[in-house]
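Tokenised fold entry reproduced for everyone:
>
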Amino acid sequence: MNQSWHEEKHFSNRNNWLRASVLGANDGLISTASLLMGLAAAEPNHQTLLITGIAALVSGAVSMAAGEYVSVSSQRDTEAADLRKELDSLTRYPEIELAELTDIYRQRGLNQTLAQQVAEALTKHNALEAHAREEIGITEVSKANPLQAAMASAFSFACGALLPVLLSLLSSTVWLMSTLAVTTVLGLGILGCISAHLGGAPKRPAVIRIIILGALALAFTSLIGRIIGITI
């Protein structure tokens, strides 16, 4: 019987790159727009705005890539260390590890006999995989991927930062702050909608959350730039 109607779509396998992409695009859009708005409030010349925007895009993308790579590499190193410890325990104390796995399934609701049977079957199939999943919480889906996270973060940051940079190129200094504010808020709303869609989450909370926080960042930076401009 065809049961395709009952197939469920899960999006947790996208977490590794989706988190980095959303963070990068959000940071690229908000930080670059905030920087340019703060600078525009001090009324610099058009060339200064453009150079500042390009520098923010390039340096931000490189920084995000490096930061993601280092942080996710640290996570991967921790996972590898835990797996080595588990493999050593499985080699030296197989009976104790089997008892631990049995107890895990018993605590999840299986009776002692069934828990023992499941633990023995999974241990025979792939003991390290079973213990990694049940004891440590490491699966193939959740394993850290530093290069993937770094590339996703750098690319998405550049995409997010590109919008305010193009606006600084095309808009006059007089209208730049207003244009940046409106387009950044719209861009954040679109980003929130896309990220929620890709993650299979409700769109409204994601859009509201990202717009409110982004608008606060823009307003605060603009105020600081105006104060500095007056002081100078």
Observations:
- The longest helix spans residues 46-92.
- Helices lie at 15-41, 46-92, 94-107, 112-136, 146-170, 173-199, 203-231.
- The radius of gyration is 25 Å.
